[in-house]
Sequence to fold (122 residues):
Amino acid sequence: MKAHLNKLPTILGLFLLVTGAVWAALAILREGTILLLEPGIANLIVGALLLTRFEKRYIRYLVMVTGLYSLIICVYQFYAAFSVLQYGLTIFAIASLIGYGSVSIAFFYVIILSYMNAQAFY
Fold:
């Protein structure tokens, strides 16, 4: 059990780095709005802090806040993709629903994991 808890910050750090790179790439490549750059930078910073084990006391709260911020954006994007269905069932709508739905569930899981496993961050 102890080894599993030691891996949690590393796994969450890698997840946040990947999602931060995706948010930033979507903002820079104009696939999304420039507002996606903020969660991208936040995810990259918190992911790097998790991997370097910097200031362990506050990193748990940063993970929860960054996860909540990204969750809100993913849920909104899911809602926007769901509203595209009124124009017909398109491949874009289906891909967006599946993508944003699964990422929303992943961020919800990140929030729950960081809330329930406080001892993993100390």
